[in-house]
Amino acid sequence: MELKFSKVERKGPITIITLSRPEVYNALHIDAHFELNRVFDDFSADPEQWVAIVTGAGDKAFCAGNDLKWQAAGGKRGWDKGGFAGLTSRFDCDKPIIAAVNGVAMGGGFEIALACDLIIASENATFALPEPRVGLAALAGGLHRLPRQIGLKRAMDMILTARHVSAKEGLELGFVNEVVPQGEALTAALRWAEMITKNSPMSIRASKQTIQKGLAVSLEQAIEEQREYPAVKAMVASQDYIEGPKAFAEKRPPKWLGR
């Protein structure tokens, strides 16, 4: 697949996806959304790829959100079924996705990060949902994910004021996992990804899916139904389910197959 607005690199079982429109702070338009939807489709379907990292080209921006200049010039808006950047409505991916936020993450850019499982931010990263300042609203998941991730009152603070939040404050609020020096977000995200890949990918997928499905129902229902979740059933039926205890008993590192 020819890529015009993104770049894809693979390091073993880790896929690095770079939003690549640096001339507009990696803001996205309809063609970029559809391209990224295909990129995430490929990652989700590839059994050899276990973890993804999303970052932005250049050192100024992760993603400035929707390309408002494109929109103001009459450019058509819209995205594929995966949502903004092919990610914000992608509820069926049980593989971990890490955001390496290397600068501005505004509007849809922040919504991309919130849709990831972990956020690693450089010291120069800035987060906001500024849509109300231009007559819009954060309808690519931001208005729903932020309250769920940091609590209602803290989210209302950011949403109603549309103010900018630093990486340090993001860590304090709880939506950032780690803050690193400028220029080191991707390196740190790779460190996190490598830690994840030391675990069974079947167990990781079962864990992520169980969390996602469980949060949508009561605790009682979640515990009662979790063994019927597809990723949990796949884990129990996998070779990794046998390999893990066997490697532990033999006092050796496990050899995960991801199946």
Automatic annotation (TrEMBL):
Spans traversing the lipid bilayer: none
Domain of life the protein comes from: Bacteria
GO biological process, one term: fatty acid beta-oxidation
Keyword annotations from UniProtKB, A to Z: Lyase
GO molecular function, one term: lyase activity
Family per similarity comment: Belongs to the enoyl-CoA hydratase/isomerase family.
Protein name: Enoyl-CoA hydratase
